[in-house]
Fold these 2 entries.
Entry 1:
Amino acid sequence: MKIVILVMLLCYSFAFSSGDTTIHTNNWAVLVCTSRFWFNYRHMANTLSLYRTVKRLGIPDERIILMLADDMACNARNEYPAQVFNNENHKLNLYGDNVEVDYRGYEVTVENFLRVLTGRHENAVPRSKRLLSDEGSHILLYMTGHGGDEFLKFQDAEELQSHDLADAVKQMKEKRRFKELMIMVDTCQAATLFNQLQSPGVLAIGSSLKGENSYSHHLDSDVGVSVVDRFTYYTLAFFERLNIYDNASLNSLFRSYDPKLLMSTAYYRTDLYQPHLAEVPVTNFFGSVMETIHTDSVYKAFSSKTSNNKINSEMPVNQLSEHDELQKANIPNDELKTEKQKCPYTQMRVDLHEKLEKFENVDTVVNLGIAVMVFVVMISSSLL
Amino acid sequence: MATEKRDKEEEEVKTDDGSLKIKPRPIVQLGIFLVAHSPVFSVVFSAAGVLALLILPLLAKNTYISENALMPGSARSMLSNRDVSDGSKLVKDIKNYRLNHEGQVQKLIGKYMSEMGAEVYYQKFHPEGNQFHPLHFFSGPDSYTLLDNVSCASYGVNVAGIIRAPRGDGKESIVLVTPYDFINGGDYEALSLGITGTLFSLLARVTWLSKDIIWLVADSRYGDYRPVAAWLTEYHSPSFKDSDLLKCGELNTADKFRRAGTMAAALVLKVDGRSERFEDTLSIYAEASNGQMPNLDLINVVNYLAVHRQGFYVKVEKVVSLLSSSWLKIIGEIFEAVGKLAHTLNPDWNFGIPTADYLEGSATLASSLYSQALGIPTGPHGAFRDYQVDAITLKVSPRFPPDSKTRQHDFFLRGAKLLEGTIRSVNNLLEKFHQSFFLYLLTSPSKFISVGVYMIAFALLVASLPMVAASLYIDGCKALNNSTLNPAGNFKSWKWLDAAKQVFALHLFGLIVTLLPYFICQVPGQHSPSNRSIMWGTTSSSLLLITFATIPGCSPFSSRRHGTNWAVLKSVTISAAFIGLCLMSIINFATAEIGALLLVPTCLIVQPIKPALRSRRIKSLLGAFCSMVLLTIGFPVMLFAISKGLFGEGLVGLSLGGEFWTWLESLWAWKSATYLYIGMVHLPCWLLCLCILFHPS
């Protein structure tokens, strides 16, 4: 019995490393516009529109890494100084007061982009420019610019290849930087950029298949340039109908793309992504909506109701009454919570702890444990 | 690998019957084959070259905007009626001012510009044109030195206004030029000021400028080109010494000459005459000195906006006389028939074009070739090309008389919209024009032939020359070996030396003849062009006689003993012509192409006339006759006369020499490499062909 439990302990530590059991705790967005020059106005407008959308749906600025390769707002050719529009009706200025651009101009390079994804920064890079995600993060990676067969052009000078992207994602997975990653790309031949992806938990959607172009949606004849791309335009049109509490699924987003309107075929790759798309709300990536789980204590490692009860039973009586009041206050919450909603990680620890509590002679367990460990060490060293 | 190699060796040994002679490589074999059959191939290649030239209008591609940044026509025009009324007011003011006052209209224009919010300045310049100097040919623009003892008798005053881009970095600019004769300018000329005034009124208030706008009103009293060139010179090479000109006249121009960064593009606007067609006509002139062209994108943008937005009838120059030529029509019909036949065979082959299109294309192509070959800029835009600025001249002909007020409003609006669109496109540029072609020939405003295509015609024409030279050399060596009793076996490879001496002497002569006009110009006293041409002709011919007398074996009239074998002489001549043509094709392709059309047949066909006459065979007589005709045409003066006749300009009989002189003067004044080509390639080769024709063999 005891040995079984020890093996369970070992297993537990392995299970922990796989990370599948972690729950979705936070949302991040990395929004990248890779092309500069005035005539690529629409790429910046695309990115800023998406920035506005994810912010509206609840991802805070500190969790959005916005990379803009050029500054159209302050371009001398811009008829509306310091403003960027994604529609010719000029109703919505995307470049308002609260736009935090993290990487701008020539900072937007393939190197910096890969550094953001993989988290390998120099020490001096401030926290606001880092993607500080963890194993519970859902990340939205949106990229727009000029692409081709398995590459995406950065700054008219360099390219991000599909291998580079796949490699970065793999590193992220190994470093447990995300739980789920959604890559959305609006470029020509966008689908080819996903060819090399292998890491689980990655969902990819691109605006066009191999050999197809992604077209701009319309031209603003006051500004004199195209202001938004078709794919992004219809993505935004979908999200404009939603608010933060809506339950629209990813499937409904993907079905909203009409090849006739896009003039290209939107492509999505789901083979690396387990959940059923119809059951995943879009806010899983484009917003920051998640279940709240009540925890009693932030700092205690084994924080669970049942364990607390056990510990409390040994407490002095005068403290007990006080604690009971707290318990009563917590009861309504407890009832609302279904069994499903309980964090599996916490649940497992609770179970283990309960079993450990039942042992009468703790010393024997410890001694046995040491013996087993010596045994294991001997075997492993002899194998080596 | 080793075994394979051995097999190969064995094979070779077997095939060569034991001898170790290695088979020559295929390319060498091909060369030998071509040289051995050079007469056939030279005829085939030359014919193919001419055919390729004739076929060019069929191969013309539609122009397209190559640079993404340009985006012509994507922005809505912002011109308002207020701008147009500003422009109209300017024209009216100028008219009234000139009726009532004598003197400086420039001030009025300057006042208008500064009211618009531009920085205004005046520039005085000397009308003195370019002078021929042999060393100035490839030296680029003059480092225009200010003369100390200038007279105030004649000078021009340019007005320039600069609108600074409100949020631009001030490092780039776009130039608008309107040549205007402030003394004699007609009503039509004033319209160009009206259009630009309208545009200027708009540009002064827009927020989208990234480049500064310079409006130069050039004083075209002394020609269109000179004031622009003078302004550009001062713009690019500032002088730190006060010119004496500043003190001349009442207008004080001592205020600083202002600049506005490097020029991205320049547009010269002229309004002249009434349009013959129902629509307003826009003629585009692009050729700068030595056949240099502005980037094709600039023409494309203007053409696109003029045709698709403003409804102008756009044209480029064409040789009108070719439109009615019957032989070209027949060729066009043949091509049309062949095109149709090909289309029936394979529906994908769509190279046939209607005869009318072919005629139009050929006439435009001929004019394009001619203007490039001449090397003289076709307008003030040529001055910009010297500074690597892309520029074109737009000549607008309205379809109404200049005093019609109602039409004028519409005309200003459309003209200014065209310029606004072009400027907005250029304003979008991030770099210099570089995306599209610089080497091209136009067959219509929207069709072009790129360098890769038109080079083929020239390459085919010239390809036969080295072949024939090689084969003649081999023949000549054989003949020499047979004829001379003392076989010069040791110096076998030096046989071409005598011939080379002659060729070199005549090329040297050509160089001296080329430089002679410089010295003739230095002769004191006033001489008429005909007198000068006579002086030139006599000195040249006496020099030629001296050359023939002093260098033995050079003259065609020397005895046979001294004379070289004509075949070797011809071989070296052809080589020299080949090198000359190839060099010229790099400097100015159009000159080389037209030159090759003349020089290649002459060089190939020429043969000593004496044996031909002696043999009395029809074939050789015909050959002799052809070479006589070609040589007569090939004489530069004759060529000039023929080209004059071809372009429909009447000859004034006896003054041919004088006209020729004036023509050459214009060539060297514009630093045209064509002049060098005529003097240093064409003339020596022509003389050498004469020598061969009269060779006493």
Entry 2:
Amino acid sequence: MIAQVFILSSKGDRLVYKDFRGDIGSDAVGLFYDKVTALTGDQPPVVMTHRNVHFVHVWQGGLYLVATTIAADSSPFAIIDFLNRLAALIKDYCGALSEKTVQMNFALIYELLDEMLDYGYVQSTSCDVLKNFIQTEALSSRPFSLLDLANVGLFGADTQQSKVAPSSAATRPLQGGKSEIFVDVIERMSVVMSTSGVLMKAEVEGEVKVKCFLPSCSEIRIGLNEDLSVGGSHLAGYGAAVRVDECSFHPAVRLDDFEAHRILRISPGQGEQSVMQYRLADRLPLAPPFRLFPAIEKDAAGRLLMFFKLRCDLPPKSSAVNVSASIRVPNGCISLSQELSSPDQSAELQPQNRAVVWKVPRFPGGTQLSAVFKLDIPALSSASMMEVGPVCLTFELPKVTASGLHVRFLRLVPTQHRGPTQRWVRYVTHSDSYAIRI
Amino acid sequence: MQEWANQLCENRQFGSKMTDSKYFTTTKKGEIFELKAELNSDKKEKKKEAVKKVIASMTVGKDVSALFPDVVNCMQTDNLELKKLVYLYLMNYAKSQPDMAIMAVNTFVKDCEDPNPLIRALAVRTMGCIRVDKITEYLCEPLRKCLKDEDPYVRKTAAVCVAKLHDINAQLVEDQGFLDTLKDLISDSNPMVVANAVAALSEIAESHPNSNLLDLNPQTINKLLTALNECTEWGQIFILDCLANYTPRDDRESQSICERVTPRLSHANSAVVLSAVKVLMKFMEMLPKDLDYYGTLLKKLAPPLVTLLSAEPELQYVALRNINLIVQRRPEILKHEMKVFFVKYNDPIYVKLEKLDIMIRLASQANIAQVLAELKEYATEVDVDFVRKAVRAIGRCAIKVEQSAERCVSTLLDLIQTKVNYVVQEAIVVIKDIFRKYPNKYESVIATLCENLDSLDEPEARAAMIWIVGEYAERIDNADELLESFLEGFHDESTQVQLQLLTAIVKLFLKKPTETQELVQQVLSLATQDSDNPDLRDRGYIYWRLLSTDPVAAKEVVLAEKPLISEETDLIEPTLLEELICHIGTLASVYHKPPSAFVEGSRGVQHKRLPGSAGSGESVESPDTGSAPVASEAPPAVIPSQDLLGDLLNLDLTPTTTTGPPPPSSAMQMGAMDLLGGGLDSLPPVPLRRDTPQSPQPPHQSPSPPDYSPTELGVDLGGSPAMTAGFGAPPTAGPPSFTAPVSGGLDDLFDLGGGVGMPMGAYVPPKTLWLPAMKAKGLEISGTFGRRAGVVQMEMTLTNKAMSVMTDFAIQFNRNSFGLAPAGPLQVLTPVSPNQSIEAVLPLNTVGPVMKMEPLNNLQVAVKNNIDVFYFSCQYPISMLFVEDGKMERQVFLATWKDIPNENESKFQLNDCHLNADAASSKLQGSNIFTIAKRTVEGQDMLYQSMKLTNGIWVLAELRAQAGNPNYTVSLRCRAPEVSQCVFQSYEAVLKN
């Protein structure tokens, strides 16, 4: 049971404060802020306690969304989930989650909270259900501006490159506006591989998100790859069938045609929903996108020389963007000199992280880059060679899914609503944790 | 906040222009005055804006209670938005203005009749939140109507309102019969209403632990399961949490519930998944393990748990804490999922540490290579805390998986080569543990360790290094120099290091007495004369005296065999784990503490426990009464990872790692003998002397040991039969009663002692035949149990009816209801020749592993000798588990008696007992059944008695005796009613003998 919910700015100002059960005083707000700002990096921030008050919070959009409880049997999972939904709902209603939008729409947020929670019991977090009860009109924080075009991305991700969607779609409130629908396939990839290219671990977590700006829509149908197989890897055979190990669906998804035709049928409410989540491990359909060929040696002057060749194994038409390789180096590095193959790349030494960070803004598939790093390390011993590596990569792969999952079609079942409807399907793969061991 | 201020400021200026200039001053009063004016405006829009401003001020924490009447005036409106805002204000301030709040009542009552269900629900919801007593009276009628409203939205709101009202005035709710209406709502057609009713009832039931408000029976469970499929994700959580409190009648029902809950595991909301996992983990306890379904269920649990780890780091952390519990309880669920727990380089540190912990728990022979490769990678990471944990983890792997020990050691040596200070120190600490676990295997690495002596600056690492030097002093040529170098800064060291150094130097002296006299004297005087630390001083004195009076004894003490270290570390003790499993998904599972440890006050604190395992046909106690019946109060600090039954089958000389020190397994250890025992019978510690062939230099001021003579040495080297038996000497020192007497004479002595000390000794049943010679290749065992001087003992007569000599006796118990376990090895010192009988007394303790037996007092025993292993089971009188401090205070007795529900009372008839009440009382007292009060009513004597079992269960008894009537009535009350039958048997046995 949630006792209180409050939203604080990053400076600790109260923006919204609602008490549901009256068993914790309002001084909890100050207590929470003191505690959260005093946290050190290695303390789990998830649940904090003071006396018998427990604080659960999430940090989104520069705001602390906090719930307190005194009941020992409350589930932190449920509370975090609830707070995330609250954040998502505020985004859906007000266009964005920020200090400003919360201030402007506090009455609306109070109203939302009132319907979402009763006496600390979560009642509903579904946008569709709630809109029946909400009376207050949302105020959008900023008018539409062409300047926004500069910073378009997928809903969560700041992908500079993928300028595929029109402007403020992601940061726009639901009410009014054009009728549009977005289907995003977002994947996160975790890979651990050795320099010889042996995959020690490979995992892809993905989700299909729908963001719907349609005033009314009875049903949409999303067709996925027809050869998609779920679970049972023994069925996969030799073909390049697309496979996922596990998947779960939003409760509103109707799966009547899923078994036979891999079609998801949904009546999407307005707002953003994750309709399908999936995971696959170990056997990826494609080769991992990057391989590294390192050579490390000590030169006569006692410096550490690192030669790297980095190859991008994506198909030639695609490319990776914002690639950044962080190379762990031994303790006590004083300086770095580097030779890179093109001027748009950069490299710097970050002594506090014991790392050399090599950045490549754009990396087309099928190409190869090389770099030489020379490091001055006064106390270089043979043992410190052991401290080199791993190399951790972060990147984005626009228009690529690591699992091979694709949306074959996106069909809207027509309703009374007339007028053109824009349909968008987007793909992106992010690196979650991509490490190459040396 | 600046924005708010600006806004308010603008308004103020605006207002000031319109009104009199005297409000131009920027006082608070002015602000409020303006708001007042706006609130009373005729225009709706303006009113609404004003209320919004009021609420804005309220949020920031300003006191706007002065506006109460004006805001309440706005309540009478048909604008729902405005109404909601006003209600928001009301909820906040009604408590501070109870009289004013009454003004609002009429509107509430009227709103509850409104044709619009939204308004009806809103009114009911708000009224419940106004925690003012006066209002509650008016609330009853509207609430009653709303509970029966035609609209489910209103009904679900009304259901929650009952819980609110109950919190304010519980009596009122009961009197008005709302609880019954609420119970009816469980059968409502709308799942949301059902969910809220369940949530409300659960909460109300929590404040009345003994009421059966939420009467869970198969019918209601069925309804809940049906609603489960239809309601929202949040409602599913309420229902699943409620289901988790239910205890199914049998494994069939348990299975059918599991089957219906399993689909929840694929839900997108992770809180639903975790609640479902909780239900399944609990009900699984009841399923027989050989059932196909059990295996299916185990398989089904893995994927959802893995999926939980794809969430944000915060959720991952919560999931990992829960998985940590699940892995400890049922490692088989995730045993193939090791890879998921591999650390990602960009995980936050708190997630990394949790994953590491789980990795170690899942490590097994099958995956150890993979795990070690990972750990080695982690050990070169940047984050110091994580690296340290990773190095420790390598050590834990070595100890857990024996096959990997060698690779672990070589990995650790590689890491030491890096010379990274904290890595080296951690590695040395864990290598010490590896040495202890696998003695005489890896000592070759000592030289490498010694190279790093200078870089150690942490007490734990220094202490570990000193321990290693002392322990292996005979192999390290310059051990004295090394230790001497530590001695220089003795007083600057931490206590841990000082103690280790003292012990290490004494060890060194005992091993190389000639060269180290000076050193030992130096350390002893440092410890005893120059130190303020009592621990250090006392240890110093003990060594000093030992060395000066009896160097042989000193060796036995200082160089004694050390108890094995257990395989698993950081395990949560089993009873706590069981309780935590019942709290999966809740805060308790994140803190790894039971709710009682972090919730103040009694509210909501209940000890939950898992239902009994499959096959125990007995009804299981409902989860909300007191302590667990079979769980022992003082469970073992570590539990053996392997199944004890397996142990019994492969019985060897090594007892499980849990209890006490191990029996000797190498020549060195045979000398490790009980100090006192050593004084009595002269079993000389041969091998020790073999280790130090030159005669031990008598230390300063000490006479040479009296029992040292060359002839004896010669004899001993030749080997005495007792030594070859190999099992002879008890490895630890203990009180005399533990060093089991071999002869019957000593046994008698004990009896005598008991007779003098107490008016009447504890009842010891006569010996019965446990193992007939027919079944045990000639070994006959008869025996009994008794409690003598507070120690539970197993007294056995072993008779050899075979033709050959029997030696090498050892004994083990299977898990049992009260955790009975041998407190030491079975001591049969001499071989038993054909037709010889020998008495053996085995002291027992109650810290062994616990498993409920049927009957409760059943004990399965395995006895081994040089011929074979034999199994038998016997029943012990429960009276031997009654502890000496079982006398309850009168007041406590009275309160407890009342507190224990009536259904837990059992009545028994005791026939043909020709004792009067007083005689019975004193007889029972001998068996630790204490009489607390005696009452005589109309010629009937009533004795009130209490006793406490070793695991902390109290049993309360009422004994009725009619003068002249040989039949007694015994009524027993206990929170764990299962024990009653056994307790009564003890009554019968004690009183009739």
